[in-house]
Specification:
3-stranded antiparallel beta sheet, alpha+beta, Ribosomal Protein L30, Chain: A, single chain
Length: 119
Amino acid sequence: MEHDDYPRPINSGSGPFEEEQSGGDVALEDGRPKPKEPRRFAVLLHNDDYTTMEFVIQVLRKFFRKTQEEALEITMKVHHEGRGLAGIYTSDIAETKVAQVEEYSRSNGFPLRASAEPV
């Protein structure tokens, strides 16, 4: 069997597609739009006169996986500044976190409010 009887590799340098495969004038990646990063939302907890600091810390640990120290720091920010950043997420996750926090708060007798704002 001769060499010519074996199939040629795709990029052998011969054939009708030589210019496209060898990087001629065709640029497949150029001109394609790059996918955009999903919009991010800040989930905020809001101060009120009834929700205890201990409960806010519990919420931050349970739903936002904060350490005790992180949760305390955010809780103090909520207490002193009126609101505190619990986390930044994509739209769907942020909406879910807000709903979870508010449902959990109501079921425990607290009016703690959460919101999601675009970053």
